[in-house]
Amino acid sequence: MSTPHGMILAAGLGTRMRPLTDSRPKALIEVLGRPLIDFALRTVAAADIRDVVINLHHLGDQVRTYVGDGSRWGVHVDYSPEDPLQGSGGGIRQARPLLGDATIVTLNADTLAGVELGPLLEEHRRRQATATMVLRRDPQMERYGAIRLRTDGRIQNFLTHTAPGPAAPAEAFMFTGVQILEPRVFDFMAEGAFSITEVTYPRMLKAGVPLFGSVFEGPWLTVGTPGEREHAENELRRRALDWPRWMELC
Q1: Interatomic CA distance for residues 24 and 183, integer angstroms
Q2: How far is CA 97 from CA 57, 61, 79, 80, 102, in A?
Q3: Residue spans per domain, the chain
């Protein structure tokens, strides 16, 4: 498998974060005085991923100005502007010329996750997975759509879709937004704007390709509303030592 590329999904409108996003993109909303996208860039850089693509839409020039070429984080950044928005799947598909035939690690700019990507990539390669979704336990997982994982790590049920073959014992989890994708994933993508979870993963599951989940037990926070931002700041202050050293929270 090829040297991985990172992709940070930062093109959203951030409507739930208004009025903070009226004048700046959600990726630049600050948590403890640092823009959200800084946390994602630190996470990919800590795994020695040196090539990163960031997709842009709402006030995207502000992200370009802040991040620049990425050298502050020890990475090289390319940009994939979207007009109109392409969705979580269409955005990745549109960026393919920048990603080439590399393994792709994607993160959401509005999610703080203390994920160590290096061991995750090793597990992905060892399993010869086409895609690995990072999953977590959550009290709300049934509400937002549970993903059921067999004991061997294969995904058996994805939302309302079931893998072919005999059923096996499976435990329910929720998608964190972090995923590793091989180029074959593009064979299961649609045209136009679309969601990778609504279109691509169900197609992969039906086709029986190696779709795995990796359970993450560490810290994870979404920052999609002003209330979630306040909660994230409180949690980061209270549990700074629980987060990876590269976050530099203390």
Answers
A1: 33
A2: 18, 21, 11, 10, 11
A3: 5-240
pLDDT in tens, 175-184: 999 999 999 9
C-beta neighbour count of 2 within 10 angstroms: 11
Residues in the chain: 250
Q: In which band, very low, low, confident or very high, does the pLDDT at 47 lie, cut at 50, 70 and 90?
A: very high
At 143 the three-state DSSP class reads: helix
Tokens of 116: 């160590």
Task: Determine the average pLDDT of the residues in 144-165.
Answer: 82
- Dihedral (CA of 215, 99, 93, 184) sign: negative
186: left (phi over 0), alpha (psi -120 to 50) or beta: alpha
CB 227 within 8 A of CB 20: no
Residue type, 144: Y
User: The tokens 């704007």 sit on which residue?
Assistant: 193
Q: Which CATH architecture has domain 5-240?
A: Alpha-Beta Complex (3.90)
The pTM of this model reads 0.92
CA atoms within 13 A of residue 129's CA, in its CB half-sphere: 27
